[in-house]
Amino acid sequence: MIHPKFRRICLIVGALLMFSIGIVACSEEPETVEVTRIVEVPVEVDVPAETVEVEVPVEVTRVVEVIVEPEAPASAVSTVPFEEQWANSPHADAEAEAFIHWNEEDPAEVPANCAKCHSTTGFMDFVGADGSAFGSVEVAAPIGQVIECQACHNDATLELSSVTFPSGVEVTGLGPEARCMTCHQGRASTVSVNQGFVDAGLDPVADLDTVSEEVGFSNIHYYPAAATQYGTVAMGGYEYEGKTYDAKFDHVAGMDTCVDCHSPHTLEVQFEKCTACHEGLNGVEDLANIRMFGSLVDYNGNGDIEEGIMAEIAGLQDALYQAMQAYANEVTGTPIVYDSASYPYFFADTDGSGAVSEGDERFATWTPRLAKAAYNYQMSQKDPGEFAHGGKYTIQLLYDSIEDLNLALSTPVDMSAMTRVDMGHFAGSEEPFRHWDEEGGVVPGSCSKCHSAAGLPLFVEQGVSINQPASNGLNCATCHNDLTTFTRYAVEEVEFPSGATLTLAEAEDDAEGLESNLCINCHQGRSSTTSVDRALSDLPGDEVSDGIRFQNIHYFAAGATLFGNDAQGAYQFADKEYLGRNEHVNRFDSCVECHDTHALEVVVEECSECHENVASADDLVNIRDEDNTTDYDGDGDVTEGMAGEIATFSEALYAAMQAYSASTPGALPILYNASAYPYFFGDADGNGEVNGEEAGYNTFTPNLLRAAYNYQYVQKDPGAFAHNGKYVLQFLYDSIEAVGGDTSGLTRP
């Protein structure tokens, strides 16, 4: 017989052993199913009198099994960091629709396709923090959860550095913002909207106005901030075929990610950081009034270019809603109304009230054209911070949606005053900045100085150009070395492609000249007399050579034009004399004195002080020095502007080039297209037009190349008449001569 005391010891030891097993079991990651936990339950028993000297109650431990729900691991710290901030955030709001939406469902659980962003266990499942595979949620999540600490703070999220958007595009190289972007990216894209049309048996382009019960409304979902910020990279909006869009909105360094701008625990904007650069802000509500110097066009056409970007967006939203309602009435025959707070958002306006009324049912007579517009309209409604995340991308989506609907309306919405694209330096959707998207989004070192936001400051500071990531246009830090004082990089001199080192600064303290030097680092062209001569070597002037390729000055070589012979940006023929720098009047003798540094437009009101015939930008081409009475182009008009004289010379040069190429043995007739690379084409079918069948011109003679180079030079500097008009006439005249053109009616300055 076992002594009772020994039995008691055994029971206690056994209980402790089972309890330790229970602790180990509970230290594992909690499962979403019921588990058995071993616990201790104290009980009181009487020990028989004959086995002890006295009869006393003895407390022993009995081991029992109970079925319990899983619990989160106990905290290892007594105070959870940032708990109070988190507790007051939307992520902790247990009564929010985002967390209670499924409470009345059967079964009452958060479905697997929603759990990633609407529960802690779902998010941990998606990132693989629970030991499951990364990138998917396998099981539904229990209701009653919010987004807790362990959702974002675990070993898996520490290594999370990429996000895959609904379009299928993966963005890599991310930091902590990847946690935010995993959910705040929306749930649809251009790809899924188009797939919806295909699934309905419709062509997204050919069947635009076909009403189909199979076409439904695609919902971007809520707070798709990352989709807005990454623009055409993520394709979160519906992007129309044939259009180009802004890419990721690049804010200044240090304020360019979710966690840079928002508190990761309260989720609120860190307002005090905004005030470092943006003046006049009194509270978070003022952020919607921000408008940067790179936004100097009237997007919504109301005549106000000082209102905040959010106001521009609101104006376009109103115009799009108007177009959608007109289209629904005219094409589908069913009036449409929208309510941002009532699913499914778009309703049939059965009573014609213009608002959602009781009894109105979901809108069901969609066409692909209307569905595209509605998708973009909804996207613009569901990202309240879009003006800061990617306002210009949103503007483009809204603009294009209105434009597309207008194609089917008998009375289109007036868009005549609306603007889609920014001024050149900030036109992130355009070719100068989007050219490399299909090449991995990397701008090579030979181009990055002028076609990336970070290239110019690196070149100014270090004197080198290296590969840079493609950017969404230039930004403040491209030209400003301090974003609190907005001082600019000071450039004392600039080296041109010819090898000449020049400056627009008249003295060390010439602020306008130093600033203008910054401009001509890029606005100088990429070739010169020297590079053309090097390419031609000693080849005979009028013999075709298959080794000659077109030399391109590149675009807006204003600095080279301004300096004339000093820079030799145009091709200058040997034994000819050319004018040097065009000395305009004092105060208007450099880039920034004549152009607005952000809008880039000529400051016309300054021109009108001396030039009486200039009242608007359109009148600039009429400028001509009063004492200049030479009829250069021989048309008998000595009052026309220098632009008119240059235009006649250009026409004469092109005609001479065509005649020369047609009569040169072995050469094809030459054609030019200013908007199609490589600009010069061989007229293989002899129809006098570039029609898509012609290849790039490859039967140049040295003289034809020299002439073509100078012809292109003038086409790509639209302000050449003002930058150095007489210099331009000189090299055009010499080019006409070089290809045997008739110069008898022309006068060379």
How is this structure best described in words?
- The chain is mainly alpha-helical.
- The protein folds into five domains: 65 residues, no CATH class; 155 residues, no CATH class; 142 residues, no CATH class; 53 residues, no CATH class; 237 residues, no CATH class.
- The protein contains 27 helices and 14 strands.
- Strands 1-2 form a two-stranded antiparallel sheet. Strands 3-4 form a two-stranded antiparallel sheet. Strands 5-6 form a two-stranded antiparallel ribbon.
- Helix 25 packs antiparallel against helix 26.
- It is elongated, with a radius of gyration of 36 Å.
- The N and C termini lie far apart (129 Å).
- 37% of the residues are buried.
- The N terminus is likely disordered.
What topology does this entry show?
Elements: H1 4-27, E1 35-46, E2 57-68, H2 83-87, H3 97-100, E3 109-110, H4 112-118, H5 120-127, E4 141-142, H6 149-152, H7 155-158, E5 163-164, E6 170-171, H8 177-183, H9 190-199, H10 225-234, H11 258-261, H12 271-274, H13 309-332, E7 336-338, E8 346-348, H14 368-382, H15 386-406, H16 431-434, E9 442-443, H17 445-451, H18 455-462, E10 468-469, H19 476-479, E11 494-495, E12 501-502, H20 511-520, H21 529-536, H22 558-563, H23 591-594, H24 604-607, H25 642-663, E13 670-672, E14 680-682, H26 702-715, H27 720-738
Antiparallel strand pairs: 1-2, 3-4, 5-6, 7-8, 9-10, 11-12, 13-14
Helix pairs in contact: 4-5, 10-15, 13-14, 13-15, 14-15, 17-18, 25-26, 25-27, 26-27
